[in-house]
Amino acid sequence: MDESCTVYRTMEYLSKRWSLLIILELFKGQEDGKRYSELKRDLPGITPKMLSTRLKELEDEGLIENVVDSSSFPVRSDYFLTPAGWALIDVVKALKDWALAWKIDNVACGLQDCADCHL
Amino acid sequence: MDESCTVYRTMEYLSKRWSLLIILELFKGQEDGKRYSELKRDLPGITPKMLSTRLKELEDEGLIENVVDSSSFPVRSDYFLTPAGWALIDVVKALKDWALAWKIDNVACGLQDCADCHL
DNA sequence: CGGTATCCTTTCGGATACTG
DNA sequence: CAGTATCCGAAAGGATACCG
Q1: Chain B residues within 8 A of A61 when measuring between CB atoms
Q2: Which residues of B fall within a CB distance of 8 Å from A22?
Q3: What is the topology classification, in CATH, of domain A17-111?
């Protein structure tokens, strides 16, 4: 195990607080993505600073995309998953399946199409 | 998204630094698991305090098991994955596959049976 | 609305020494 | 060998105010 390990390098940015949850929220937004204020609303407890920071990191990693419409007022800013970001949902799904199988008894989340996250 | 979210609750402990890497190292040990000193050796940069802390957390979560032989001197302490811990490897594998597909060009890691982590 | 800027607290985690 | 104890610095992250 060293810094060349793929798992090691990937966890460096994915293990950060809120990162995967932001990905999950954008997935819930489906093809429409979500706006900054929607993400803020849907991630209770996150501060504006933290949200901005994580969004920038995820954009730098190529997992999300930001579309800004400066012509409207107030400015409209939408965030979407990139193909790489979409693909990450498989990992999140594996994580959820594991948790439901071994760790958590969460009926709502165990439904075929989870009412909350559709995962 | 709130504290009842399965993904949220799972990331609370799995996203901590070293946690998944410790799981991965124990997986590499296969049925023999690994000793404290082996984990320390195989996770360059981890401090004894950090290793102890994470091992305790993972044990509390039921992902690893610690077998101590006090009759030998020095005391022998071995760590193994529990069934829940073994099952987590599927998630780590999904993570690695995603990274190789979208983020990292890591030839060694992409081999059918990765020379380093056998994942 | 979509962020920044500032300040401040807390906790994470590193270094090192020590012990049964 | 398998940890624990102590100390300490850096950084992560929270609260809040503010701005175009």
Answers
A1: 103
A2: none
A3: Arc Repressor Mutant, subunit A (1.10.10)
User: CA neighbours within 13 Å on the CB side: how many for B47?
Assistant: 3
More confidently predicted of A72 and A52 = A52
pTM of the complete model: 0.94
Taking the domains of chain A in order of start, what are their residue ranges?
17-111
Determine the Cα–Cα distance for residues A83 and B89; give it in Å rounded to an integer: 24
Across the interface, do A98 and B116 touch by the CB < 8 Å criterion?
Answer: no
Best of B2, B7, B13, B51 to mutate (most A CBs within 10 Å, chain A):
B7
Residue B112 confidence (pLDDT): 65
Q: Report, as an integer, the average pLDDT of B11-32.
A: 93
Burial of B38 (0-12, 13-18, 19+ CB in 10 A): middle
- More confident call, B26 vs A114: B26
Bond before A44 cis per omega within 30 degrees: no
